[in-house]
Write a structure and sequence with these properties.
The protein is mainly α and 77 residues long. The protein has one domain. Helix content is 84%, strand content 0%. It is built from 3 helices and no strands.
Length: 77
């Protein structure tokens, strides 16, 4: 059971990474940001392997660079 959960979490995190890195347009960024936020909520509290934590750090870095800044600009408007 635990192995299935680990594989499921790994697949979702890798999918999130690919989603985040794939799009370059503003619309695509908004969609990717929402998907990453959904993944974060879905897997909150799940213990990750070291490989999964590395992937998560990359996703969080991408999110911070591409989503937080855009959201703060939109909020000021």
């Amino acid at each position: 059971m635990r192995l299935v959960l680990v594989r499921s979490v790994t697949s979702s995190i890798v999918a999130g990474l690919l989603i985040a890195m794939s799009g370059t347009s503003a619309l695509s960024h908004d969609n990717n940001c929402r998907r990453l936020e959904d993944l974060a909520r879905q897997y909150a509290g799940v213990q990750l392997t070291s490989q999964q934590r590395q992937i998560k750090r990359r996703l969080v870095g991408w999110y911070n660079d591409n989503c937080k800044r855009a959201r703060s600009v939109q909020a000021r408007r």
